[in-house]
Specification:
Helix content: 40-55%
Number of domains: 3
CATH class of the largest domain: Mainly Alpha
Length: 384
């Protein structure tokens, strides 16, 4: 693997960093307090104009065609300044990639330009249900053929960006007689479709600026051509595309964890105790060194997974390894950074308190750390 970024990747990373520091930092705290939504949506549109909502989408569909590595490094820079914006960017890119990979040419032409250009503020990934989180094959939302239409009934939960998403990818059981996981199909549902209801946003612990909603389908009628891919093959699509999404979550966690350490390091150079800067104390130095080393290891794991995907090599296990390590160690990084700042880190006056809440969900969504261990173990032991 080539460890150095290309000139294009460096440009994309630096553009993301410049935009994030110039536009996102000032609004991050307001978003955490459920204010600044108009600015948030404007920033999403600005990211689309920069080409960041379709970084791995082909140019013929309005994408940047910059690749997975570029997506990862850009997302880390966005997350370092605003995790709520980063998760919206991550999921929207994932939705676009699913449509590009599985959708018909008509579906690609219809939806990808709208996602990439910002005409749609975001995309929605409707997989999780109350009884089908880590076990998505247990979903109960149904899709029944009715003439030249499908009728969707059921509900999804914890759907990122649902209240401002322009299009949703929805998984539903289309063959109730099939074995578990075999009769699931995926569909494209436009925002505002009759029978689609979005509940008010959940009041979350972290990433509070990104709306997370329950989504209900009550005889939601969609055309026959809303089916994406082959009927009954939706579960394979979900499993495959979640692997790519894990690169995004790992990259988000890396950005948050690294930003927390940077903030704490700068604080150590200013704070004095016992007549000297606390950066001079070896015990604190070693705490910082361990966390920075782990973040660098996480970065390399993410780059390996991103490289594998970009080169069309098997990447599912490497993506799970990257997500497992990066998210767990980013949590450690945030808590260590908070500890290094002492009581100040616990105060909302400083961003460490928010970062520590924002990073916590990364070990849970798009496959918990426990599920990543199951996936990795299954690969390690499959030959036995």
């Amino acid at each position: 693997m080539q460890l150095e970024l290309s000139e294009e990747q460096i440009m994309i990373r630096d553009t993301a960093a410049q935009f994030a520091r110039g536009e996102l930092v000032a609004n991050a705290e307001a978003l955490d307090q459920h204010r600044g939504r108009e600015v948030f949506l404007a920033n999403l549109n600005a990211l689309a104009q920069l080409g960041f909502m379709g970084l791995n989408i082909r140019q013929e569909y309005g994408g940047s065609e910059a690749g997975v590595i570029a997506f990862s490094v850009a997302l880390s820079e966005i997350a370092a300044c605003c995790a709520s914006t980063a998760v919206t960017m991550s999921v929207t890119n994932m939705v676009a990639e699913v449509i590009q990979a599985v959708g018909s040419e008509q579906q690609r032409q219809k939806y990808l330009p709208k996602l990439c250009s910002g005409e749609f503020a975001a995309g929605g990934f409707c997989l999780t249900e109350a009884g089908a989180g880590s076990d998505p094959a247990a979903m109960r939302t149904t899709a029944v053929k009715d003439g030249d239409s499908w009728l969707l009934n059921g509900s999804k939960m914890f759907i990122s960006s649902a209240e401002y998403a322009g299009v949703f990818i929805v998984w539903a059981v289309s063959d109730s007689t099939a074995a578990k996981g075999k009769g699931i199909s995926c569909f494209l549902v436009e925002g505002g479709t009759e029978g689609l209801r979005i509940e008010p946003a959940e009041d979350k612990m972290g990433q509070r600026g990104s709306a997370t909603n329950a989504v209900y389908f009550d005889n939601c009628r969609i055309p026959a051509d809303a089916l994406m891919g082959a009927e009954g093959q939706g579960f394979k699509v979900a499993v495959g595309e979640l692997a790519g999404g894990r690169i995004g979550i790992a990259s988000t966690a890396l950005g948050i964890g690294k930003a927390a350490l940077d903030y704490a390091r700068n604080y150590m150079g200013e704070r004095e105790q016992f007549g000297q800067k606390i950066a001079n104390f070896q015990g604190l130095q070693w705490m910082l060194v361990e966390r920075y080393t782990e973040m660098e290891a996480a970065r390399l794991l993410i780059m390996q997974a991103a490289y594998n995907k970009e080169q069309d090599k098997p990447y599912g296990t490497s993506a799970s390894m990257a997500k497992l390590f990066a998210t767990e160690k980013a949590n450690d990084a945030c808590y260590t950074a908070l500890q290094l700042m002492g009581g100040a880190g616990y105060m909302r006056e400083y961003p460490l308190e928010r970062m520590s809440r924002d990073v916590r969900i990364t070990t849970i969504y798009e496959g918990t750390s426990e599920i990543q261990r199951v996936i990795i173990a299954r690969d390690l032991l499959k030959a036995l």
